[in-house]
Write a structure and sequence with these properties.
Length: 194
């Protein structure tokens, strides 16, 4: 079975897992490194984590039967995509100590899905989880952009929800500006021979 999805759909899946696991803080790191021809997507959370038995099973939905485990596909799909695209996949977790899910890809691999609608995905996460602290860090070459929901909350105060339409517009613009600045500056670096 082949399902074509872009990377932001995978990201949504993985962050939803964190939220289901009770996380209140999620770090999303995206690194695009043209020099190393690598892309890394990592999600780290402070949720309830996974027991060792779950950790063994989690990347392979077929190792156990349905009677011992609900067959989830979010993690196996991301693992499969990474491995098909010249990359690798890892999950690290301990009970009560959160989880780290990391997928790497060859940046120029012909089958590597595009990031897709990352801004829409991030907005979806922010609006749907008003209590969640999200720290999104994105690097392209030497350029970096970090977005923290906590900073927005500190500016707005506790009474204004992040789902307020004006606030959403503000967040959307901040994300769009941040993303386009790292992409265009990274382009300049490449042209300048860095
Ligand atoms: N960040 C996390 N913290 C704790 N447990 C997790 C985390 N991510 C995944 N898990 C565990 O791994 C299981 C498998 O995750 P996966 O995304 O593959 O499937 P699922 O979420 O159960 O179903 P779906 O196909 O809807 O995504 C989850 O049900 C959960 O028990
Ligand atoms: Mg899932």
């Amino acid at each position: 079975m082949t399902v074509f999805r872009d990377l932001s759909q995978h990201i949504l899946d993985i962050v939803e897992n964190s939220i289901t696991a009770g996380a209140t803080l999620v770090y999303l790191d995206i690194v695009e490194d043209p020099a190393a021809n690598q892309m890394v997507i990592a999600v780290r959370d402070n949720g309830r984590g996974m027991a060792p038995e779950m950790l063994i099973q989690v990347a392979d939905p077929w190792v156990t039967t349905r009677t011992t485990r609900k067959v989830g596909l979010g993690i196996p799909f991301l693992k499969q995509t990474a491995e098909m695209c010249g990359g690798n996949f890892k999950v690290e977790s301990k009970p009560r100590h959160g989880a780290l899910i990391q997928a790497t890809f060859a940046l120029d691999h012909i089958d590597r899905p595009p990031l897709g609608d990352l801004i829409g995905t991030l907005l979806c996460i922010v609006v749907g989880n008003s209590q969640l602290d999200l720290v999104y860090d994105h690097r392209v070459g030497e350029q970096a952009f970090t977005f923290r929901t906590r900073e927005i909350r500190d500016i707005l105060g506790a009474d204004v929800p992040l789902s307020d339409p004006d606030v959403l517009g503000f967040i959307r613009n901040a994300l769009a500006e941040g993303l386009s600045s790292i992409e265009s500056r990274a382009g300049v670096d490449v042209k300048a021979g860095h």
